[in-house]
Amino acid sequence: MTIRMSLACLFLASWLLGQGTEHLTLEALGHPTQKKALVAMPPTRLEWLPDGTLLQTRREGEQMMLLRVDPSTWEARPLVDPARLQAALVAAGLPEAEARSALGRGGFIWNEPRTAFLLGAADQLFLVDVKTTLARRLLTGKSEEPSFSPDGTQVAFLRGNDLYRVDVATGKEIRLTTGGSDKVFNGRLDWVYQEEIYGRARGSKAYWWSPDSRRIAYLSLDDSQVPLFTLADDRFQPQKLHQARYPKPGDPNPVARLGVVDLQGRTAWMKDPHPGRETLITRVGWDSLGRPVAILTDRIQSWMELRRLEGTDATLLVREQGGAWVDPEHFGDLPLFFKDGGFLWASDRSGHRHVYRYDARGNLLQAVTTGAWDVRKLRSLDEGKGLFYIDANMRSPIGLDTYRISLDGKDIRRLTERLGTHSIRFNANHTAFLDTWSDIHTPPQQSLHDDSGRLLRLIDANPSEAWKALALGKVSFQQVMTRDGFPMETLLILPVGFDPTRKYPVFQEIYGGPGTPEVRNGWSRSMPWYQFLAQNGIAVWVCDNRSASGKGPASAFGIHRNLGAQELQDQLDGLAWLKAQGWADMDRICIDGWSYGGFMVTYALTHSKAWKLGIAGAPVTDWKLYDSVYTERYMGLPVDNPKGYDTSSVLRAAKDLSGQLLLLHGTLDDNVHPQNSVMLIEALQKAGHPFQFVLLPGAAHGPRSPEQAWAIMQARWAFLSKNL
């Protein structure tokens, strides 16, 4: 379940501390034509080039400018003339209007030295040489997920559900796989692998070039036995049907195989190391010696293995087992490899995520990092300098910093200075990095730093004068203890003009899913909505139950096989702290959430009486209705855990609804199917409970159109205004 929604995540804005007097309007936040552009993200789009300079992409009118920036002087020169670039595409056979549109969209796919890029337009793929500003048509016909080989001589791509390559020099096209169909995906992720294992941000690509450009590792996913789920788009006559292979708990999963194909189309298949058992192949790549490596788990993700292919045999290097589950979606990335094949591997085995060093045969050498904090990302390795780099929450459980660490773990240096959330990008030799930073009061800023973290240039200060003029409620973080002593992180925004002797209603936003904290010291796109509420006399409360806290995987294990119960108890403990403050009107609290948050809202309203109102967007109302990979990780198979599935079901508890409920759901939600809300509506009607329902025609799991966003905002505010 990788998509999360909150009301104001649909609206880009920013918040700064200030002493202003102006007030927000609902229209300024979300109206399709009256919405105000309050602040922007950092406007300078940069990426490192191999020679240590920067590539800046900048839109000027309809044109996309490509500039080379010298990081020492900040002098910018055109990398290529846009007029010549457009003329080159026209000369290659692309109509002028199509060429202008394609260049305006960007989406360039570069080779490794950044001397050429691919550009798709009108079901054609063009190759553009930056140095000569020449373009030529490389492919005709629909092609997807193209990528250069490391040496730049080949381009692999998907056509339908098969893998192809084209020789860059000759334009000769070769089909590498056969048998792809609507049920068999060669080199392409199916729905559940993309959603729950590799992530939508990676696209649908399921193939990986070897370092020597001679082979491609790829997944073949056979969905023949996976049930077909159909969504009807009733906005048209006749209806349009949207179908996808979608396994629900206990259903047949895709059958995954790992193949390695050479440039002539000959595939060698990895021998199944667990014949007769269902497994998932959760990561694929290559080690430093050019050998394929893969990470596998069992179906319910109770163990994880790192294996290296030697011929077709899959040699076991590391096996992780012992906790309630492993999480390949969030914490299952490949290791960083040394030149001899040894590697650094991130593991949850201690209850926190830390780095371990192994030799090339899979022998553990040492634990490199330890402590009551978590490595969020094993970033990169500089073997020559004896250093590696991680992102971690060592300084603050609600922040994120980047650290440089010696290979023996004895020298750890934090490179990011300001308290908050950092996202950095190193140059090729780790002598400089770009840093995008924010905290709860400051929208993202972009800066340039040297390898010690020293600030070289503030690139985007990203000021927000409009927000400084607003009357704003006080924002604070608190740690709130559960009854058994777990420190939950919370965010509180007090109403503007707060008077501690008064009683205030409370709007509580929640997600609550395993390992997915909402409380963080970083810029929140929800802040404009929160401050709108604060200006209207409503306090805002966000509390991460322990399983959502991200404080080590072990902190979430208490929800294993019984989703909802411990999360609700933690949230009730949070409300007890809120009550003790004296100013919160505990009879006027609204809980709001989307996706897993929608589950938490409906679960809370059917398993307690603590909330007056609930707003549930796209809720999972019974875990038998969600997908197999996500659900079985936490709940196991229905046949093995019938009690857990029953007790976590909102549908079974619908008769116990307490408080007023607003439901929202998109008709084309292919993630949390609208079936969840339809079945809950039926159960509520049978129980005689009133509710409100807002249907979002054509909307997927995260509604994106301005009209849908406005409809959601209007419905929520009307519901709050009338009932809270």
From TrEMBL:
One Pfam family per UniProt = DPPIV_N
What's an example GO BP annotation here? proteolysis
Residues of the Dipeptidylpeptidase IV N-terminal domain = 122-444
Task: Read off the SUPFAM superfamilies from this record.
Answer: alpha/beta-Hydrolases (SSF53474), DPP6 N-terminal domain-like (SSF82171)
Indicate the segments forming the Peptidase S9 prolyl oligopeptidase catalytic domain, all copies: 531-724
Superkingdom of the organism of origin? Bacteria
The molecular function terms in GO held by this entry are: dipeptidyl-peptidase activity; serine-type peptidase activity
Question: How is this protein named in the record?
Answer: S9 family peptidase
What lineage, starting at the top, does this entry show? Bacteria, Pseudomonadati, Acidobacteriota, Holophagae, Holophagales
